[in-house]
Amino acid sequence: MVRSFFKGISLLFFVVFAFVQSAAHAAEVVNLDTDARFSDAVADAGMYHPDAFQHTGVYLTQPVSPTKEVVVFVHGAKGHPGNFRDIVRALDSSRYQAWLVYYPSGNRLADSSAMLAQEVSKLASAHGISRVQVFAHSMGGLVAWQMTQQLRQDMDVKDLVTVATPWNGHWASRLGVLLSFNPVPSWSDLVPDNDRLRKIWEDTDRPQHKLVFALTRDDSSASGDGTISKDSQLSSAMVEQADEVIKLIGTHTSVLHEESSVRALVALLN
What we know:
Blueprint (H helix, E strand, L loop, with lengths): L1 H22 L2 E4 L10 H9 L8 E4 L8 E6 L10 H6 L5 E7 L6 H18 L4 E7 L2 H12 L4 E8 L7 H9 L15 H7 L6 E8 L14 H4 L2 H6 L2 E6 L9 H11 L1
Parallel strand pairs: 1-2, 3-4, 3-5, 5-6, 6-7, 7-8
Antiparallel strand pairs: 2-4
Helix pairs in contact: 4-5
């Protein structure tokens, strides 16, 4: 009987611990500069071992305020909330609040977008917030596009800003799917010209979209940002329906950190 009692207590402790762990990342206020979860190593693990990822959620840099405008930040493949630290720092914190989602980028994009939409909607509803803006980098633009479609069932999405997004995928994903014994699930969503990308191209029910593309240099010979090709960033279907198309000079990641680029990106949120 004693053994059964302690076994029951242990089970109860485990259930409570698991619940606390699962809820720990809902509206957690963090320091983007020092939090060890926001590292390339942890983000890489989220790509290659998505089922083991334990940090999914919405992170904040200040407590939720029902009176400040919400900007939801969505990172890309092998990305994390810390990627946006310079942009968040440049925001007027008296007017804006940053909600930074974190997800394992190896998961299928539709699964990630559905989960993130649910978490953002839940947080917004709990605080009486009915409008957000969304800012996404790289593959995060594809996740954000699908996420905003679901968010708009519950609230107003004022703007969607996408930066260096591979609207027509990435050539390496095709090789990864074909040659890997255990391909990362999200790779199949990034194979150029696949049906899931085409569905995004054909989707006309969208918020105002500001499409930002990046080139390593400002001349006609630039083929991309060093990671995503110019052709994929400027997929004709997405350019045609974008409300604004903005060019930045820099690499795939430097545009999130260089002072001139940060100023230009923050201006798109004003």
